[in-house]
Design brief:
single chain, about 240 residues, alpha+beta, Jelly Rolls, Arc Repressor Mutant, subunit A, 2 domains, four-stranded antiparallel beta sheet, three-stranded antiparallel beta sheet, 10 strands
Length: about 240
């Protein structure tokens, strides 16, 4: 059985939403992983059109889902932090309709689909929790789509709020500060704006006294101000402890 803090963070994601997770179920969750592999920065973990036989849990580093366009441009459609499955949905889908790549050097635990199938067949409660995980993924996508109606400043504020809450849930952010392994160019890709515009937006957040980005660290200077700029409502992250 593989032991790693990233797996602990993944289980913490479940426990934050369902405190009834039993020790037997936790052992079953840990049993789905076969090995740990490493990827360098800016490296694809999975490719669009891959036929998948395993899913990937992010243990260390940050990754992102993206759709590549014919002219080489890419649209980032999700950001993943340690404790996230980057492609749990590949278990029922099997064929990927997008790619997943790394922002930074990453370590990933492999979960063969045969193991996921066995666990979901023998543990109905865990099957519901896996389902919940994919539903939260969909909720995050809806918020990103809603970003099309927000200004660039509002989108940046919303993404910083979201990342802080997700990282705090798994113990990787505290005191309104977290490490940011993304470059500002990559952040611009996630916001669908130019790097020059991104620089102006980050300057505006700093001038507003809401947040600052220095030396790959985000410091939220005023949470209430940042959340107000974003109209941030964390309901979609479903952090309500309740039996599922």
């Amino acid at each position: 059985m593989i032991e790693h803090p990233g797996i602990d963070r993944w289980i913490a994601n479940f426990q934050a939403r369902d405190p009834t997770l039993s020790s037997d179920e936790e052992r079953a969750l840990r049993s789905v992983f076969s090995e740990v592999v490493e990827f360098g920065d800016d490296h694809d973990i999975v490719h669009m059109h891959d036929r998948m036989t395993q899913s990937h849990l992010l243990l260390e580093g940050w990754a992102f889902r993206y759709i590549a366009l014919g002219d080489g441009r890419r649209q980032i459609v999700a950001i993943h932090v340690p404790g996230d499955f980057v492609d749990l949905h590949s278990f029922p889908l099997q064929v990927m309709d997008h790619s997943v790549a790394t922002f930074s050097r990453c370590r990933v635990a492999l979960a063969p689909h045969r193991q996921l199938r066995e666990v979901t067949q023998t543990h109905p409660h865990l099957s519901r929790l896996f389902w919940l995980s994919t539903l939260i993924d969909a909720a995050v996508h809806r918020q990103w789509l809603a970003g099309g109606q927000r200004s660039a400043l509002e989108r940046a504020a919303h993404l910083l709020c979201e990342l802080y809450v997700r990282l705090e849930t798994v113990g990787l952010a505290k005191d309104f500060t977290f490490a940011m392994p993304m470059s500002q160019i990559e952040f611009a890709d996630a916001l669908s704006i130019s790097p020059v515009h991104t620089n102006r937006v980050l300057q505006a957040l700093r001038n507003e006294g809401a947040a600052s980005w220095q030396q790959r660290e985000i410091r939220i200077l005023d949470w209430q101000r940042l959340a107000a700029l974003a109209e941030f409502d964390p309901t979609y992250l479903n952090l309500f402890p309740s039996p599922r």
